[in-house]
Amino acid sequence: NTIVEESSVLSSSSSPPNVESDGEKDTKNKTKTILRSQFFEWVSKNFAHPLSGLNDGGDFESAIYYERDWRYTRNMALRKEAQEEQNKVNNLNCKIEHQIFSSKCKQSPNSLVFHPYDPHVVVATKDYLTVWDYQSSYKLSQWKPDLRNHNLDLSYRSAPHLSVVELINSHDVSLILAGYNDGNIQVWSQFIDGPPKLVSGWHALPICKSPSFESSSMALQWDQRSCHLICAGDSRVINIWDIETETKLTALSTGVNASVTSLSMQLKGKSSNTTNKIFI
User: Fold this and answer.
1) Beta-strand relationship, 247-253 and 264-266
2) What angle do CA 184, 252, 204 make, to 5 degrees?
């Protein structure tokens, strides 16, 4: 009888000692979330694009890509604002009465160009290239290009000097294109964020030795759409260059024994295959 009673007592107990019920076990096994991560979302977005063979500009998560996307949006807003300002001038509702920038150069400026989107102006004197912020009147950079590779074998001419400057690729990462009276061209980068870096340089225009060519200057015209550069100056030809490949596309004869002092191009249509007109 005693054994039977002990068995009944054990069987009637709700649970053995030191054994947790299923409900209590589930409650204690639940852990609180301490850190929240977006790793899964990042992996899904990052590996959704092919990254093999792409540079930083093609990586949709790179800083360069975000910078270019911001620059594109900024440029669109500036073009819209410029169109509104132009309409005010056309309607005679705007007066130009205020001087916003004034600076004195050590040498007389031979050429200058305004950046279409940033408040910068690039000034080329005889020996120096200078970049100014015309809103704050702050000199961003100034340097003297190296001319050791320039050879001007003309006894009646002075030493090689800067005669014209252009801004290329201004909608993205801008480059400065400097032209010299001896027919040479230099392309500079990093003239805002760091020491200027010479990207490329070549002899773009043959110089005539005849005394009738005595302007001692160079004329440039840049076409951003086709990435073509038109060069003229103390020469009987006008050379057209492809900047991306640094190859000469064609040479046009001026038909006169005189220097070209000014150069302009009329664009025809929006296609790069259309014919453009060159005025000298």
Assistant:
1) unpaired
2) 10
Q: Which tokens hold the place of 70?
A: 């911001």
On the 0-12 / 13-18 / 19+ scale of CB atoms within 10 A, 83 is exposed
Q: DSSP state, 8?
A: H
Distance, in Å, from the CA atom of 232 to the CA atom of 280, rounded to the nearest integer, reads: 9
* CATH superfamily entry for domain 101-149+156-279: YVTN repeat-like/Quinoprotein amine dehydrogenase (2.130.10.10)
Which class for 232: exposed (0-12), middle (13-18), buried (19 or more C-beta within 10 A)?
Answer: buried
- Cα–Cα distance for residue pair 267/214, rounded to 1 Å: 30
DSSP letter string over 238-265?
Answer: EEEEETTTTEEEEEEE--SSS-----EE
Hey, is 145 helix, strand or coil?
A: coil
| C-alpha span between 261 and 280 (Å, rounded) | 8
**Segment-wise mean pLDDT, segments of 10 residues, the chain, 280 residues:** 43 46 52 71 70 56 80 86 78 68 85 90 91 90 79 57 88 88 88 86 81 72 87 87 88 83 71 59
Assign 101 to helix, strand or coil.
coil
Say if CB 239 and CB 260 are below 8 A apart: no
Could you tell me the pTM of the whole model? Answer: 0.64
Query: Which DSSP category does 220 fall into?
Result: E
Residue extents of the structural domains in the chain: 59-92, 101-149+156-279
For the beta sheet containing 129-133, the strands, ordered from the edge strand earlier in sequence to the opposite edge, are 111-114, 120-124, 129-133, 138-143
